[in-house]
Amino acid sequence: MTITFHLNGEEVSLPDTEPTTTLLDWLREDRGLTGTKEGCNEGDCGACTVMVTDPDGARALNACILFLPQLQGKSVRTVEGAAGPDGTLHPVQQALIDHHGSQCGFCTPGFVMSMVTAHTNGATDHDTQLAGNLCRCTGYAPIIRAAEAAEATPAPQWITADRKFTFSEIPRGEVADRGAAPPSAPDTQTDTQTTTDTDKATHPSLALRPRSGDDLATAFVARPEATLIAGATDVGLWVTKTLRNLEDVIFLDGCTDLKEITVTDTEVRLGAMADMNRVRQALAPLHASFAEMIRRFASQQVRAAATIGGNIANGSPIGDTPPALIALGAQLHLRRGDSRRSLPLEAFFLDYGKQDRGAGEFVEAVSFPRQPDSLRVYKLSKRFDQDISAVLGAFNVTVTEGSVTAARIAFGGMAGIPKRAAHVETALVGQRWSEATVAAAQAEFHKDFSPMSDMRASAEYRLATAKNLLGRYFTDLNGAPQHVLEISQ
Ligand SMILES: Cc1cc2nc3c(=O)[nH]c(=O)nc-3n(C[C@H](O)[C@H](O)[C@H](O)COP(=O)(O)OP(=O)(O)OC[C@H]3O[C@@H](n4cnc5c(N)ncnc54)[C@H](O)[C@@H]3O)c2cc1C
Ligand code: FES
Ligand code: FES
Predict the structure, then answer these.
(1) CB contact at 8 A, 79 and 107
(2) In what order do the strands lie in the sheet with 403-412?
């Protein structure tokens, strides 16, 4: 597979790329660009942050869980390219010096690239922009002061030029070498790499990069055993942490039609490849609590890569979006070849690690009806930012003239799958919306859930907090002020 992209302003073309090579490994080991640091190698620390620009704009991404084919047709800027060709520092670099924003310096390249990206995008919510960058010695105050100080200076020309390179010099999704087409999918516009038997054990035997949902459908039917790679924020860790050898892989990021988000008078439809930052943006005016929860989904870098389709398809019992989507009455749209089907999202999760998805079938989109906003989503985790939920509760109760006329309540972290609280819902519907009704419904929780104890929380904690969250929802929906740290800073 030949990958072509821009690196710090210069075109790079890589023939014979091993498709699950991470950008971080390639930068450091093949290119000698060691400014990009390896800290955790799992998307947590931000030491490996780079800026990736494509026609959608500039994004900070973690190079440690970014595979080279995901860069096709894009511009990559590492810390070595933050300063101008004549050595002029980027405004955020100068500000970090002026405000003493670095001590040991290990985290600094990652901070610089997150700050360069935020600066390029005019983003000034620095706490959020930098939540995915860990610094163990300087302390965040000088770093935030530096980010604020740099705000007034315009983005330098060498940075804004990245977008022009992308548009004019590297046609999006175009590849230099198409290799051999997969046997049963002759018409798909894909990139392939065939390996010999000897290297099959360590390298994917076939890597495809379809450019539309149609191409993907054809390719996946032909290779149903292939691993789909969307944002790679889960799959990346299979490679870097569990050292898994992936066989056939299909990269989905070229399928631009699957990135579409449409909001009509009746429906919201999120394409499977919509990343979490875009989903957050789209949901903010419709369901503010959902959008606010997404601000606490991982970090800016992970959200810029992670897709809604990946968050559903991975089937995790602690994925943050499924409970909220279930509470909104979401339908999941699946496709296999030319046939499509839709099902209520809760029906997709059959058991721990088991979903209702056949061979060669993929998630195309998820949709939910437009509705008045009664949704509240509460995420409980040990840290405010960048932490997996211990419990996530999503509540959507309709109250008409003082009585509950409908209730959809779903939880993550309470069972082996994202699950509705059916008994709790039944206890609410048809009753007055009152503290007494809430108390009666709280007594039903043990019928819906037998949570487990793990390092994130004990079973008792999970059950107790789930009940309490219903109480919180009651006061929240009744307009009582909510000053709770996990939803506002
Ligand atoms: C540091 C870090 C923090 C995280 N924090 C959170 C968090 O706070 N909350 C949370 O919920 N998750 C979190 N995650 C997990 C992860 O980011 C999400 O699950 C993410 O949504 C996965 O999406 P992706 O596009 O990266 O999926 P990928 O890693 O590309 O794929 C995940 C799985 O889904 C499959 N898949 C992907 N797209 C499709 C499709 N369209 N159809 C069928 N199958 C598909 C893949 O084959 C794979 O099995 C975190 C991850 C990291 C690394
Ligand atoms: S090395 Fe820690 S996020 Fe990449
Ligand atoms: S300066 Fe040492 S970790 Fe941030």
Answers:
(1) no
(2) 375-380, 391-400, 403-412, 419-420
Instruction: Please count the CA atoms within 13 angstroms of the CA of 2 that sit on its side-chain side.
Output: 12
| 358 close to 336: Cβ distance less than 8 angstroms | yes
pLDDT attached to residue 383: 87
Is the whole model's pTM more than 0.90, yes or no?
Answer: yes
**CB distance 48 to ligand 2 below 6 Å:** yes
Structure token digits, residue 400? 């008409």
CB of 106 closer than 6 angstroms to any ligand 2 atom: no
* 163 band by pLDDT with thresholds 50, 70 and 90: confident
Domain boundary pick from 136, 170, 204 = 170
Verify that 160 and 194 share a domain, yes or no: no
Q: Give ligand 1 pocket residues (Cβ under 6 A).
A: 42-44, 227-235, 252, 272, 297-298, 302, 305-307, 309-311, 313-314, 319-320, 362-363, 388
Q: Which atom of ligand 2 is nearest to the CA of 134?
A: 2
Same domain, 285 and 318: yes
Cα 103 to averaged position of ligand 3 atoms, centre (Å): 5
CATH number at residue 244: 3.30.43.10
Whether residues 236 and 334 share a domain: the answer is no
> Ligand 3 center to residue 44 CA distance, Å?
15
Tell me what the pLDDT averaged over the chain comes to. 91
Domain of 288? 260-477
pLDDT digits (tens, 9 = 90+) for 438-448: 999 999 999 99
| Closest ligand relative to 46 C-alpha | 2
Q: Is residue 183 part of a domain?
A: no
Does residue 66 line the site of ligand 2, with CB under 6 A?
Answer: no
The pLDDT value given to residue 154? 96
Residue finishing a domain among 119, 138, 170: 170
Sign of the alpha-carbon dihedral angle for 212, 215, 218, 221 = negative
Q: What are the C-alpha distances in Å from 349 to residues 89, 97, 157, 219, 356?
A: 51, 51, 49, 25, 7
Ligand 3: centre distance to CA 335 (Å): 47
Would you say the CB of residue 330 lies under 6 angstroms from ligand 2? no
What per-residue confidence (pLDDT) applies to 16?
82
Q: Which ligand is nearest to the CA of 100?
A: 3
